[in-house]
Amino acid sequence: RFDGTARRAQAAFRPVGGGAFGAPVNLSADIRDDSSPQVSVDSTGRAVAIWTHTAESTNRIVQAAYRSPGGSFGVAVDVSLDSGYAYDPQVALDSLGNVTAVWQADSQIRQAAAVFGVAFATPTEISPGGASFYPQITADDLGNVVVAWSQKLDGSLYASTVAATRPAGGTFGQPTTVLTPLRSMDGRPTIGVDAGGTFFVAGASRNNDGRDILASAKPRGGPFGAQVTVASGASDPNPNSSGMLDEPTLAFSANGTGALTWAAHDGMEWQIKVARLPAGSQASGFTDAQTVSE
Fold first, then answer.
1. CA–CA dist 160, 172 (Å, integer)
2. How far apart are CA 145 and CA 232, in angstroms?
3. For 142, 188, 199, 253, which has the most beta carbons within 10 A of its beta carbon?
4. What's the 3-state SS for 41-55?
5. β-strand 176-179 against 184-193: which pairing, if any?
6. Whole-number Å distance between alpha carbons of 177 and 166
7. What is the rounded average pLDDT for all residues in the chain?
8. CA nearest 125: which of 148, 155, 143, 102?
């Protein structure tokens, strides 16, 4: 929110059981610009907010703040170093209190980890190779973490979706390609984890005629499986054509059922589609798409 002097990252809290949101509070302490706020909340009510902040050097850094159950957000802490330009921060907080932040800097993906309420460790890079962007992160209830992003591999002009996994208590392994498009992955990937600890990654893939929605799943303790086409677009790749499928988003319920939504153009207007996933399924279990918008 612009307060007349700077753009401020703010947060508002609503208690369990509904009710109204409380008054918004500023997350950062000084008056230099903030942007790109995100938040992660665990099953106990702990929360971590993350955003980018303009440092005194005019570099963009990543900051975070913790909120204990029943409390308020504490003093902002620096997550990234004061060098270069950091943006698109994301954060995951698991039920054990492990916090992992990721962001893009210098066309690479960096991460830093912390225990809830404690300072973050020194950042490390997890995306060796070509230009990387659009990081997404999630964690399961045992502390396993998966980060997915788009990356131009081996000097390619086109992006694939890659992912890196960090087992509970361990370090990130080498990234692996999880979604390979016919031409290029468009936009940011989406990531989620079901109640059984299976991670899913999905994204919009440009083909020769439009865009498809691709997905892959990683069972707990195993690698990502073969990608599947959840929905296929055809026709002219013009933004007003019927071949455009865009902005996929994954979500899972507490009982493990999932849903993958995206925007699709029917030749006249944009509609919202959904493919459902029964509990315990892999990526091949997504149902045929249904239109849920009017």
1. 19
2. 29
3. 199
4. ECCCCCEEEEEEEEC
5. unpaired
6. 15
7. 90
8. 102
